[in-house]
Amino acid sequence: MSARWPQLMKRRTLAEYLDISEAAVERQVIAGTLPTPVTFAGRAHWRKDQVDAALAGLSGDDVPEYRRKLQAKYGKAA
Questions:
Q1: At residue 40, what are phi and psi to the nearest 5 degrees?
Q2: pLDDT in tens, the chain (78 residues)
Q3: Residue 40, beta-bridge partner list
Q4: Quick one: CA torsion of 62, 23, 11, 18, rounded to 10 degrees?
Q5: What is the rounded distance in angstroms from the CA atom of residue 45 to the CA atom of residue 5?
Q6: Residue 54 near residue 33 (C-beta atoms within 8 A)
Q7: What is the DSSP track for the chain?
């Protein structure tokens, strides 16, 4: 575990982790780009592993199997 980034992050910490504003965090959650928070100790927290998975999906690092097959057949543009 990273000493800097905890496994559960409050909105302010998550905003810092993503280098965006707290309002932008809320907008991204509403848009479905970021996962919804969990309640821990009566406060909203985001799980770092879920946030990282959401970011991997945005960057294309998490390519679904069907997409890999298409890319193998037709190239990266598929």
A1: -140, 125
A2: 456 899 999 999 999 999 999 999 999 999 999 999 999 999 999 999 999 999 988 876 667 788 888 888 888 765
A3: 43
A4: 40
A5: 13
A6: yes
A7: --SSS-SEE-HHHHHHHHTS-HHHHHHHHHHTSSPPPEEETTEEEEEHHHHHHHHHHHHT-S--HHHHHHHHHH-TT-
